Model the fold of this input.
Amino acid sequence: MADEPLIRVEDYSFRYPGSDESVLDGASLTVETDEFLAVLGGNGSGKTTLCKTFNGLIPHFFEGKRDGSVRVKGTDTETVDVGTLAAHVGYVYQDFENQLVQPTVRRDVEFGPLNYGFEDYHERAQRAIERLDIGHIADDLIWELSGGQKHLAAIAGVLALDPDALVVDEPAAQLDPHNAAHVYEQLAGLVADGHTVVVIEHDTELVAEYADRVVLVEDGRVRWSKPTAAALNRLDDLRERDIHPPQVTELADRLDLRTPDHSQRPVTVEEFVAACDTPRPTVSDGGRDDSACSGESIVSVEAVTYRYQTMDTGGGPVFDGFSLSVNAGENVALVGANGSGKSTLLKLLTGLIRPDSGTVSVVGRDTAETSPETLADEVVYVHQQPEQMFIEDSIEGDVAYYLRQRDAPDADAIVDDVLTYLDLDHLRKRDGRLLSIGQQRRASLAIALAMQPSLVLLDEPTGCLDMESRREVTRMLDRVDGRVEAVVVATHDLQFVASWADRVVVLDQGAIVADGRPGDVLTDQSLSDTTALRPPQPVSVSRRLDIDPPATTVSELAARLGGQR
Amino acid sequence: MSTQNGWLSIDRVRVELMRIAHSDDDAFLNTLDPRVLLGWYVVFVSVPWMFYDTLVLGALLAFMGVLVVVSRVNRILLAVLVFGMVSNLAFFGVVVWATGGDAVGAVRALVPYNLKLASISLASVAVFTTMTPSRLSKGLLSLGVPRKFTFSLAYGYRMLPVLLEEYRDIVHAIRLRSRGPARDGVLRWRHWWHLLWIGVRAFYPLIFDVAKRSRVTVEAMETRGFSRSLGDPSSRRLRFETLGTGTRDWAFLGLSAVFLLGLFWLRATTFLPGLR
Done:
C-alpha cells in the first residue's frame, strides 16, 4: 500500500463506559512518514486520548464505546494487539518515570528488544543509547538519574524497538528549559533519521522551532491541521484554548509586523528579527524603578551546608556555605536548572529538612529549634507535584485539614470562600488524586490559600506552562498579596518571572550566581550561557535588535518598538 | 522515626536499602552463576538442622562469617541481625532470671538453636543481598519460577526507592498541615507518638498513588512487549544466554563440599568420648 499514510485516524469516537461525554468525537487525522507533528489543545480536549489510539492502547487497554477506525500502516488497530503495534508506534508517557521498569538504564532499554526475542537485543539497546547520547549513564541506576536523564532513558527504551513513529506526551512539562531543548534536539534528530515524531505540547515556542505541522484538538475533534507557521498564526484559536502563542508572534500581532513575504506573522525569534527590517536605535525606557525594598527580614539563611544521603557517601553537598535573605514585601523567583538546589532551599525553609551546619530562620524562628508543624503556622509550601498535597479523600477535606487540625472557628466559611474563589466548588467532594492535572494544581493552591500564611513557598507552580495554570497562580498570589509578608517561587517559567517577580535569584549547583531585578537578571547575557536558562523571547529579540536595556515582557517591548514606528 | 536528616530517617533507610540491593556488582558471590548459588543456598539452609553440636555449628557459623566478609555484606544489615540475635538471647535470660530460674543454663540451652538460626540468616544475607536483582531473577527464571514473579522482583527493586520517596513526601505533606503536640512530654513521647500516627496515616494515600502509578506501568509494559515475551521461546532463550558456569563456580562448590565433609568428620570425632 504505497499511498497509505503511517497512521490514519478516521472519524474516530470514543466514550468511557458510564460517561455521557465522548472523549473523542469524530476525530480524523493522518500522520505521514518522516514528519514532526505537534498536537496542541487545551486541558481535557482529548489530545492524549487521540494519541493513545495510535498504538492500540485504545481500544485494547481502555474499554469503551467506539466508532470509526484507526489504521497503522494500513492495518486496523482493532485486529492486532498492542505488542504488535508497538513495533510501529512507540509511546513515551508524560509521567515517564513509571515507564521505566528495570533497575538500570541499559537493562531498561534492553527490556523491549528482549521481550520480542530479538537476537541483537544488546546492539539495539546500544544503538538507542548512543543515538540519544546517554552512554555515560547507561549503567547507572534509574532512581539516581535526574528528570532529564530519565526522560531520555524512557525515549531510548521505546526507540530500541525501532518503531516508525514515536509519540511523546508533554516532553517539556517536567524538564527545565535546557533539558527540554535537549530532548527536542534529539527528537528532531530522529525525524532527520526517518522516524516520525508526534509530540503533545503546550510550549508553542518549542513547537515553532521544531515541528513541521500542528494539529489543534478540541472537544475530541481535530479542529484543524496546518503547517507550523500558519498554525501559530491563529492567535485567537490558541488563546481561546489557553495556549500561549509564541511571544514573538504576539509581539508581531501588536506591532502589525509580518514576515518579509507579507504572508504571516513571524513565529520564531529569527523570523521576527528578519521582519523588523531596519535596525533600531537604542532607546532607554526612562529608567527603572530602583526603590530598594527595605522591609524587615522574613527569611534568613546563613552559611548553610546541606548534604543529601546518597549511595556513595562521597556525594557532594547541595549547599556549601549558602546565604540568602528575603525581606518583607518581596516577590522572589528562584530559577536555575534541574538539580541546582531550588527545591532543597524551599524545603529548608519549611523546616522539613535542617541544615548540616549554619542557620535557617524563617519569620523569626530558627528552623533547627522549631518543628515543621509549628513553622507551618506561618509558612505554606506547595509541592511541585500537586498530587503529593492530597492526604484526605476529598478536595474539601484537604482544604479544611489544616484549619480543622487547629480548631479554627471559621473553618467552614474559609473553605467555602477559597473553593469558590478558585472555582473548585463543583469538585469539592472529589478525590484530589483522580482529578486532571490542571484541577489538581488549582486544588493545591486552594489548600495553600486556606492556610493563611505569612510566607508562601511555591515549587514549580505553573507546571506545564499553559495559560490556565499561570493565570491561576497569579490569581492565588493576588489574593494573598495584602496578607502575606513574602512569596518565594521556584520556577523554570521565565515569562511568569518577568511578569510577576520583583527579585530573581539564580541558582547554579547550590550557589547564587545572580540576584537582582528581573529586568537586570533576565537580560544578563552571561547568565543564559552558564545556568542553562532560556531567556524569554523579548529579551532575545531585544539583543538581536540592539535594544538596551533589553525588554523582558511583550508589553514592554511592544511599547518600546511601537514608540518608534 | 524522624523525617529529618538525622541518624534514623526515611532518607537514610532508603539509601541503606538501595545499598543493600545494588552496592556491589563485583562482590564474589555475585560473580557466580545464580543457579549454582541458589542450589548451594538450599543445601546450606538444610545442613544446620543435621547437627546439634555447638562446635560443629560454630564451625558452620564461622564459614558463613567468612562468606559474609568476602561478599562485603552491608554492615548496618549485619548489625541489625547481630543485635536481634543477642538481644533475643539476653531477653530470654532476663525473663528466666526474673522468674527465679537458672538464667545461664537456659541461655546455654538455647545456644545451639540460635547458632543454627544465625548461620541460616548469614547464608541468606550473603546470597540474597550480594546477588543483583537481575541475576537473582534470571536464576529463579531458569529454575522454572514463572516470569511474572521474577519480573516483579526486578520491578520491586526499581520501585522501592520511588515508593520510599513518595512515602516521605506524603509524611511531609501531612506534617506541614498538622498541628504538632503542644508539649513534648516525658522523653518527647507525644512527639514520637505524633510522628508514629502520621507514619501510619501516610499509608492510605500511598496505596492510592501506587495504584495510579501501576496503571501507567502496566500500559507501558504492554507497549514494550511484556505479555508477548511470556510465551516466546526465543525471548526466553536470550535471557539465559549470559548464564553459564565456570571454574569459579566449580571451585566454590568444591570448596563447600570439602567443608561439608569436614563438618561430618568433626561431628563423628566429637562423639569420641576422649575428645570431649
Q: What stands out?
A: Chain B touches chain A through 64 residues (CB under 8 Å).
